[in-house]
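User: I've been trying to design a sequence by hand for this structure and keep getting stuck. Would you show me what you'd pick, starting by listing the structure so we're on the same page?

Assistant: Good idea, let's start from the same input. This is the structure you sent:
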């Protein structure tokens, strides 16, 4: 009986981790984001995923955040080094890769919230909404910008909760 309970826990906890190594420009970031969004935020810390620099570059573009600011201030890495890595299929440094994973996770969560919410907007572009929102101080985050809280799983949970609230308020205002 205990074996069955353990197997059920293992099955529910084991969401498939995306294989990001084969990512190429033009592939769907949202498909990767949706896969990650199925995981809990703290599970991202346990993923052994090398994040290709080209995926991070495409993510920054989708969020419409200036490359220098995206790489330096949000991912915490050198932009020129990351750009060079994007041309050689090399991964980001581990800390920057984890921040990119967290952003991709948040993007998937925001899209899922928008798609599943009551009165869901037909073609909601989560990336266009999320980019500026990440840079705007949020009262529910003690006036911090959400981008400042990408460093921890706990911070990501807070950011996701505030994003849900922002989406809810935005939908109510329509």
């Amino acid at each position: 009986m205990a074996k069955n309970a353990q197997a059920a826990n293992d099955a529910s906890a084991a969401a498939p981790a995306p294989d990001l190594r084969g990512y190429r420009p033009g592939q769907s970031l949202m498909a990767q984001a949706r896969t990650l969004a199925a995981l809990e935020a703290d599970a991202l810390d346990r993923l052994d995923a090398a994040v290709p620099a080209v995926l991070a570059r495409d993510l920054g573009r989708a969020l419409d955040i200036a490359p220098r600011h995206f790489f330096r201030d949000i991912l915490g890495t050198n932009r020129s080094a990351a750009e060079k890595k994007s041309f050689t299929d090399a991964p980001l440094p581990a800390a920057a890769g984890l921040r990119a994973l967290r952003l991709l996770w948040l993007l998937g969560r925001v899209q899922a919230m928008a798609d599943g919410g009551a009165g869901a907007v037909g073609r909601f572009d989560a990336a266009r909404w999320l980019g500026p929102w990440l840079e705007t101080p949020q009262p529910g985050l003690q006036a911090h910008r959400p981008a400042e809280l990408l460093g921890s799983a706990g911070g990501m949970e807070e950011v996701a909760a505030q994003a849900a609230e922002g989406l809810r308020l935005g939908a109510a205002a329509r």
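That's my pick for every position. To get oriented when you compare it with your attempt: The chain has one domain: 28-172. The CA atoms of residues 19 and 49 lie 7 Å apart.
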